[in-house]
Amino acid sequence: MADLKTKIENVLNETRILVLGIQILIGFGFRGFFEPGFDKMAPYARHVQLAALGLMLIGLGIMLVPVSYHRLVLRGRNTAELHRLSTATVTTGLLPFTLAMGLSCFLGAHWVWGIVGASVFGGVVCLLTFVFWYGLEFVAASRRRKSTRLYVLFDPLREAGMNQEQETDLSTRIKQAFTECRVVLPGAQALLGFQLIIMWMTSFYSMSRSWKLLHLASLTSVAVCTILLIAPAAYHRIVEQGEDSEMLHQITARALLASMVFLALGICGDFYVACRLTGVNMPLSLTISLLLLAFFYVAWFGFTLARKRREQHRRLAPATAGERKIA
Question: Which domain does 20 fall in, by range?
Answer without folding.
Answer: 4-326
